[in-house]
Amino acid sequence: MVNNAEKNALVVSAHSADFVWRAGGAIALHVARGYQVHVVCLSFGERGESAKLWRRGNMSEEDVKLTRRAEAQAAAEILGASIEFFDLGDYPLYADKEDLFRLADVFRRVQPHFVLTHSVSDPYNYDHPRASNLTQEARIIAQAEGYRPGEAIIGAPPVYCFEPHQSEQCLWKPDVLLDITTVWDKKYAAIQCMEGQEHLWEYYTRAALQRAVQAKRNVGIASAHVISYAEGYQSLFPRVTEDLS
Ligand SMILES: [Zn+2]
Fold first, then answer.
1. What is the domain-level CATH number for residue 223?
2. Does the residue 199 lie in any domain?
3. 232 CA distance to ligand 1 middle (Å)
4. Is residue 234 a contact partner of residue 160, using CB atoms and an 8 Å limit?
5. Are 234 and 176 in contact (CB under 8 A)?
6. Is residue 64 a contact partner of residue 50, using CB atoms and an 8 Å limit?
7. Cα of 18 from ligand 1 centre, angstroms
8. Is residue 3 part of a domain?
9. Is residue 243 in a domain?
10. pLDDT score of 9
11. CA geometry: angle at 228 spanning 238 and 192, to 5°?
12. CA–centroid distance, residue 221 to ligand 1 (Å)
């Protein structure tokens, strides 16, 4: 196996659970290959994605945030990723210039070989495209020689948009299907850390099964390759290659 000890990846999640549903398999898979994967949660999803916690009653926003932080930390640990929280707030998630620079600094520090974030459109949740835009803009700033001159700039890591909750309405169409069969157990264990959103556990299991069927169709029915679970991604930039096979 290729030694990827020097390889890094960055995942930017609008809310504290998005990275688990949408990219947990990719994270665990690359960690298993020796990548260092770092997750940035821009918010805890305390207002918009914690309904079950609020229904407990007697919960303050601080209580919800603490619970969500603990869930996300436990999930990241299972997946093998490091994690940090920007605590920008959600519903709405807004970032100022300092937040943008803070994320650009993460890009410089991590030097990612690829980046995972949200789709560029989501009419059900404006925090998601805002997180995607922030990620892309931070990436561009981190590439600029004139930003903190003298620091090592980043290259041009590919950006993959992970699967939104309502794919068609988000104009999201996968052009990459990642086989996550070998790490599904880890992803499902991480999913189960998200007690505040138990209604999504089964939904994202079905999504992984469905993408696996699609993946199998695209490797050919004669292939001996067994794919039981997969994640879909949409790339933002063309892949540069000298080999089309
Ligand atoms: Zn979200």
1. 3.40.50.10320
2. yes
3. 17
4. yes
5. yes
6. yes
7. 5
8. no
9. no
10. 98
11. 95
12. 35
Amino acid at 41: C
β-strands 82-85, 114-117 pairing: unpaired
Q: Average pLDDT, stretch 198-227?
A: 91
Ligand 1 centroid, distance to 108 Cα (angstroms): 25
Angle of CA points 69, 74, 76, to nearest 5°: 95
**pTM of the entire predicted model:** 0.96
Cα end-to-end span (Å), the chain: 20
| Kind of pairing between the strands at 8-13 and 36-41 | parallel
Distance 196 CA to ligand 1 centre (A): 13
1 Cα: distance to centroid of ligand 1 (angstroms):
35
For residue 62, the tally of other CB atoms under 10 A from its CB is 9
Q: How many CA atoms lie within 13 A of 177 on its CB side?
A: 19
Distance 35 CA to ligand 1 centre (A): 25
Containing domain of residue 228, as a range?
8-235
The dihedrals phi and psi of 53, each to the nearest 5 degrees, come to -70, -40
125 falls within a domain: yes
pLDDT digits (tens, 9 = 90+) for 114-157: 999 999 999 999 999 999 999 999 999 999 999 999 999 999 99
* CA of residue 65 to ligand 1 center, whole Å: 14
Q: Which residues surround ligand 1, an ion (CB under 5 A)?
A: 14-15, 18
Which residues are bridge partners to 117 per DSSP?
161
